């Protein structure tokens, strides 16, 4: 970049800064939006878990509660298949688009986890 281009760029940036209206109200609103989202989301999750807890307690008191069983072997099989094929597809696309680079980790990591889960399924 030569000095003339640098001076032109600085003049444009100074004009942009001079034309900006400084409004603290807008900044306060923009800073509050994520915080309010976190507060409302946390409140929603709290009441959701409270409702599920009360529902289970009511089912236990009436004698209708049936604990559900979780089959870890079947879950690991389906999750392993999903992660293996997703990781393979991501790795393939990253190799085609970017070549061999660190971006391949976005596909290799789920591929390796999927293979680990399939290995667990086979050995258990």
Question: How are the SSEs placed, and which strands pair?
Answer:
Layout: H1 3-19, H2 24-62, H3 72-98, H4 105-123
Properties at a glance:
124 residues; mainly alpha; 4 helices; 82% helix; flat
- Rg is 27 Å
Q: Mind summarizing the main beta sheet? A: none
Average pLDDT over all residues = 90
Name the shape in a single word: flat
The N- to C-terminal Cα distance equals 64 Å
The share of residues in helices is over 70%
Question: Helices and strands, in N-to-C order?
Answer: HHHH
SS strand fraction: under 5%
Quickly count the helices. Answer: 4
Total strand segments: 0
Structural class: mainly alpha
Low-confidence blocks of residues = none
Account of the protein in words:
It is a single chain. This protein is mainly α and 124 residues long. The chain contains four helices and no strands. It has helices spanning 3-19, 24-62, 72-98, 105-123. Helix 3 (72-98) runs antiparallel to helix 4. The radius of gyration is 27 Å and the shape is flat.
Describe, in short, the structure shown.
Helix content is 82%, strand content 0%. With 124 residues, it is an all-alpha fold.
């Amino acid at each position: 970049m030569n000095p003339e281009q640098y001076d032109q760029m600085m003049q444009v940036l100074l004009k942009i800064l001079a034309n900006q209206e400084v409004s603290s109200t807008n900044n306060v609103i923009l800073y509050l939006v994520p915080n309010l989202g976190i507060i409302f989301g946390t409140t929603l999750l709290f009441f959701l878990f409270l409702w599920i807890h009360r529902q289970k307690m009511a089912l236990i008191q009436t004698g209708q509660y049936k604990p559900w069983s979780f089959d870890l072997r079947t879950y690991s099989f389906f999750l392993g298949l999903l992660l293996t094929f997703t990781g393979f597809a991501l790795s393939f696309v990253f190799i085609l688009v970017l070549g061999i680079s660190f971006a391949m980790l976005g596909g290799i990591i789920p591929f390796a986890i999927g293979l680990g889960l399939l290995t667990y399924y086979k050995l258990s």
